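Bug #77: duplicate submission created two jobs. Keeping one. Sequence:
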Amino acid sequence: MNDRHMKNGRGIRHRSKGSNISYLPEFHGVSQRDRKYLLPTPTSHLLTLLCFLVALSVTIIVLEKKLPTPLLLKDAHNHPGQFIAERAMYNLIKLTGLGPRPTGSYENEVLAVKFFVKEISEIMQNAQKVHRIIMDIQKPSGAFPLTFLDGMTNVYRNVQNVVVKIGPHSDTGHSLLINCHFDTVSDSPGGSDDGASCAIMLEILKVISQTVTPLKHNIILLFNGAEENLMQASHGFITQHEWAKEVRSFINLEACGAGGKEILFQAGPNHPWIMETYSAVVPYPYASSLAQEIFQSGIIPGDTDFRIFRDFGNISGLDFAWSTNGYVYHTKFDNVEQIPLGTLQRTGDNILALALGMANGKELSNVQMYSAGNIVFFDFLGAYVFRWSEFLSLLINLSLVMLSVYSVVKNMRAGISSGLKREVYLKQLGLSCGVVLLTWIFTPLISLMIAFALTVLDRTMSWYSQPAWIFFLYICPTLLVPMATVWIASQRQKAVVRSVWSLFQIYYDSYQLVWTGILIFCTLMKVRSGFIAVLWTVFPSVGSLLRSTLFSHWRDWKWLVLHGSILILPFAQCIYLIFGAMNLYIPIMGRVGAGNNPEVIVAVITSLMFLLLFSFLTPLILLVRNPQRILSVLIGLFLAAMGVLILTPLGFPYSGDPAAPSPQRFMMAHTQRVYHDEYGRVRERQTGYWIVDMDQNSPGSVKSLVREMQYARPVDSDCSQELYCGLPYLMPVLTFIWKTHWIPGPAPNIPVPTTLDLISTQYHDGLVRRMTFSITGPDHIGVMISPYSGVTLIGWSLVPGDPLQGPKWNGRDTYFIYYSCASDPKPWVFWIDLKGNSGVNQSIDIAVTSHFIHGQHQRNDQFSQFLAEFPQWTSLTAWTATYSSWKF
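Kept job's structure:
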């Protein structure tokens, strides 16, 4: 440094126009005079800021769980036209009281339909005369390709829909569709998925029917009876019902959890007026284009009727789902006790307001006029929805990129004015950016190492029932590693940049530049969740400009308050998003399949989220007189947690508490497997229990408690020898759930035999061979087909066009057909066309599975005794199944 900057070893303050660091000492801690410019101790100002941010996070969590006060039946007289949560709950209790309702069961096809007809009829009888209400029962049959999971062709017969239309007597021919489903998976009462949505729709119908003002357009309420059968009933409605032609938009109500808030996680495509209406009318918004992009990426294993209305009806709409308490999703615990009245009130208020807003809006009569453009949207802490068009998003992003670059250049000029050469400053800025990027690579790797260590020690998924473990195992290291890396790197940089305040500003600008780069990427790739990068670009940029212009004289705690104030809004919003995401993905880890390591998934996701969150907190370590103390506290918290986790049982992942369950899931089928050779003779027959491992700890977690589990062997060689591993997959999830176990056991009772008959074989056009099959069996059947090498499946009678392929098997194409018959069974006849190798006797492997997922034949006594051995902290989905394969 030039001698003119030194006097008796003291730092001299240099003021220069436009400098945001001119008031700062050039040397860190070299005299008592300069000590007032530093944070006094690591346990005062910095820890105060960190404690404040923790308190802010806790406050956001508490507010995020807050629900509106529910209205009771006694309040109905004083609240005309409002949603009454208690009345909806009574309907939900009646519906779930019917028991599990799989498609094809008596409970679903008879009792549930009777329930809806009775409730809707009563509403129709008591409705105001200004409304025209029509009810219809539909029983469609059809087929369609579905690119979900491994991909399948979905065939259905006689599934049921209860459909109601309410509107003015002068029918406008334009309708809003609201959809729920009343069927359930096997063994679940379906309280949240999706009985509560249907109860909410009944209450909405009742409230609207009692209003004295007619609707401008119709509202069609679709209570569909086959969603868990992979969206069959909604396809039957939107492609076959006469009212489907007048649907202009839709609202789909779903659940992947119970209670809490309903999140708007899909909107569109296009038609920004729908989001505009949502933003304008709902009292409790909760929406994010981030959630939409995550869901549509396929990371979350699920789908909804939204896909059917969008893809087969060419309609735009909104998709809502409860995501809190996903532990009970598709389990016996999904009952009314898991659903607070406040949740029904909140969702009911929102959907009622939204339905009226859309049905009475001008857009519904001419949706094409308002169809252009997608929209970026997110709610701010549940209070207000920000939304803007993609074009406006482009303008905003480009403006913020320029603002960010301007603030960094301004800081660079200030650094140059204080004595650093331009090339030195740019080099240090580049090095700091490199350090930042290094921490963004290194930190997830450290979390990955922790996850692998816990896997080796057999201490995985401690956070599953106790999410607080995530703080100690992964959040503390995510704060520790970047701070330690930046501090170590700064020790070398101090030889050039003598002022730690200047070094802090360089690192601050480095994080800002990295976020600016992310914003540029999101802009170029049209990533609508780039609004997060917007937040972390605009506030730090504005903060830099404020510090350099209006608050350049602030010192110590005032400076820290300013820094914290700059961060508080993006920090609060991101914490809000992060905890919403954690509420979703932590329970999902209980059903990702044993082939995936949930500890690794949680470690990486958590590390990345909090690494981004801590961006502008990390450089504060440079301003602490004793940074080792801060780092030691974080190390101590992590090591203490690891010690407790390893040495005590406090990290046990599961809980069977009925009030707050977090069970370990098991899917199992009492199975008969029969393989035929090329002559049609049985070459092998097996019976036993097929265990589908839903998480990494299966089946080892119960081996000491369930005697038969000691004989479980992994299914491995079967997968190369037999199509779909020779196992009765109910759905095509082989690439998702491939790690399973087999236990030899007694033969199941098969009340309805499954048969496959080749009715005829015809040749046409030379090499094309048409094979016609007939299949009989129970109401749920799967068919897997794999042509031999040199043979191609070019068509079939199921759906027009090229058959949808599944994953390869031994280098050969595969095809999965899912078939269900809700009532009136008869033989299922279809043909396939094969091309090639006409001189070879065998052309295809074909396997047929049957599934008894409901009724008295779902389980026999031996199977029930086996299931009774499982502990209360498990949740079992169990049925009887068969698998038979042939060569033709």
